[in-house]
Structures are given as structure tokens and as C-alpha cells.
From TrEMBL:
Segments forming domain CobQ/CobB/MinD/ParA nucleotide binding: 5-131
Name under which the protein is recorded: Cobyrinic acid a,c-diamide synthase
Organism of provenance: Microvirga ossetica
The keyword Nucleotide-binding is assigned to this record: no
Keywords: Plasmid
CDD domains for this protein: ParAB_family (cd02042)
UniProt-listed InterPro entries: CobQ/CobB/MinD/ParA_Nub-bd_dom, DNA_Partitioning_ATPase, P-loop_NTPase
Pfam family, any one: CbiA
Highest taxon in the source lineage: Bacteria
Length: 221
């Protein structure tokens, strides 16, 4: 079972958005997945409510997280996606403690580059693998936009592993959530849908690399 935690102290960086779209992608590809909304704001839970009952179970809250994860493992869940709030509360550190990999979404820009450092510090203290994911980026025009290049440079200077791809800023990523859907369901084959698929494949490869180091069994694509 792969436990993926979305964390960043920067509000609006895309934690809930990526958790929802990846969850939807995994459900479509028949990967037994559990969503956990550990953010009292309840964005992921709201999306799930609009979505209605289906093939993507949701657990709300952080109480009994260890027991929830143990039950998920017993039930054969392959992927657990935990959305966290943009603060430094103990619940975030607890979620990170349970993570196999922490995804740190960041918009390309000075404030996000600055804000990710606090989350990275927690990951390093807890010795958890982590990766920054550039989200809501300007569209590529053959190569990365200058803002993305700058953000990558800053992450490299901080020695932060950063996904080589990007999630482009696109209305369909936002709009699909309003219908309780993922972009893969709402706009199959669109660039946004392709990017979410690329991110999932990159995460799968990361889990395989983690498995090679730790001996932990990861589910491959
Ligand atoms: N790639 C994207 N393209 C278009 N809109 C996006 C994208 N990523 C995020 N958004 C929009 O930006 C807003 C903030 O995103 P989201 O709620 O996922 O951030 P968050 O990190 O979960 O915020 P918080 O820290 O407050 O929980 C939402 O309205 C979302 O629809
Ligand atoms: Mg959120």
C-alpha cells in the first residue's frame, strides 16, 4: 500500500486539487484507493460529496489515522491519498509520519518557493521521501515558461527533488471539480488529463525506487 500525503503550508498551492484528480484517475484505472481528508476546511470531502457514492471511498478526519491505515491495508487498498491543511498543526506532521511519499505542490513563484521550505523541513526531520510538484504553471511553449525555469532553479539550489513535468494552469482542472469529477472523467484526452496521468506514472516510479531502497512492496503501474 502506497501512502501519499499532499502537504504545503502555502494555501492554494493545489493539494486538494491534485488529490482529487489523482484519486479520480486511480478509480478510473481500477486501483483500490482511499481518500483521507485531513483538512478541516473539507475541500476534498466537498468534492467527494458532489461526486456521490461510487468507487472512491473517503475517510474524514485525522483521529485514529494509524487504525484507518491498518484497516485500509487489510482491505487491499493500494493507494491512500491524504489531503492536509496549510498549517503547521500536529495533524500534518502525523500524516507525514505515515507517508511513504510526500507530494509538495507549488505554484511557480517567489512566495511558493519560500513557503515550501517549512514543509521540506518537516519531511527531512521525519526522514520521509518528498517531491515538489509544480502546479498551475503557465503553459509550455516548446520549453518550460521562464517562471517554471526559475522555480526549478530555486528547488535545485535547495536540493529539493522536483517532478520534471508540470500541471498547467487550466480551467478544466478547476471546472471538473465543481462536477465532482476528475479531469480524466470530465475531459478525457485533454492536456490536463494527460498531465495527471504523467504525474501518476512518475509517482509510481518513485514508489518503485523507494521500494528498491527500503524493501517495502510498492504497487507498480
Ligand atoms: N492546475 C490548476 N489549474 C487551474 N486551477 C487550479 C489548478 N490548481 C489549483 N487550482 C485552483 O486553485 C484553487 C486552490 O487550489 P486547492 O484548493 O487545490 O489548493 P490547496 O493547496 O488545497 O489550498 P488549501 O491550502 O487552502 O487547502 C482552487 O480553486 C483550484 O481549483
Ligand atoms: Mg486544500
Amino acid at each position: 500500500m502506497n501512502v501519499l500525503v499532499f502537504a504545503s503550508r502555502k494555501g492554494g498551492s493545489g493539494k486538494s486539487t491534485l488529490a482529487a484528480h489523482l484519486g479520480s484517475y486511480m478509480a478510473e484505472h481500477s486501483r483500490p484507493t482511499l481518500l483521507i481528508d485531513a483538512d478541516p476546511q473539507g475541500s476534498l470531502a466537498l468534492w467527494h460529496q458532489v461526486r456521490g457514492a461510487g468507487n472512491l471511498p473517503l475517510h474524514i478526519g485525522t483521529k485514529h489515522l494509524a487504525a484507518t491505515l491498518a484497516k485500509a491495508r487489510q482491505d487491499g487498498v493500494e493507494w491512500v491519498l491524504i489531503d492536509t491543511p496549510p498549517n503547521a498543526e500536529a495533524s500534518v506532521a502525523e500524516a507525514i509520519w505515515h507517508a511513504d511519499l510526500v507530494v509538495i505542490p507549488m505554484r511557480p513563484g517567489l512566495f511558493d518557493v519560500d513557503a515550501v521550505q517549512a514543509t521540506i523541513q518537516v519531511c527531512r526531520e521525519l526522514k520521509k521521501p518528498y517531491a515538489a510538484v509544480i502546479n498551475a504553471a503557465p503553459a509550455k511553449n516548446g520549453s518550460d515558461d521562464a517562471m517554471v525555469t526559475d522555480a526549478r532553479g530555486a528547488m535545485q539550489a535547495l536540493d529539493v527533488p522536483t517532478w520534471a513535468g508540470q500541471i498547467t494552469h487550466s480551467p478544466e482542472l478547476s471546472l471538473s471539480l465543481a462536477y465532482g469529477a476528475g479531469v480524466n472523467e470530465f475531459s478525457s484526452g485533454s492536456p490536463g488529463s494527460e498531465e495527471i496521468g504523467n504525474l501518476w506514472r512518475a509517482l509510481t516510479r518513485s514508489f518503485e525506487a523507494i521500494e528498491a531502497v527500503t524493501g517495502k512492496h510498492a504497487q507498480s503501474a
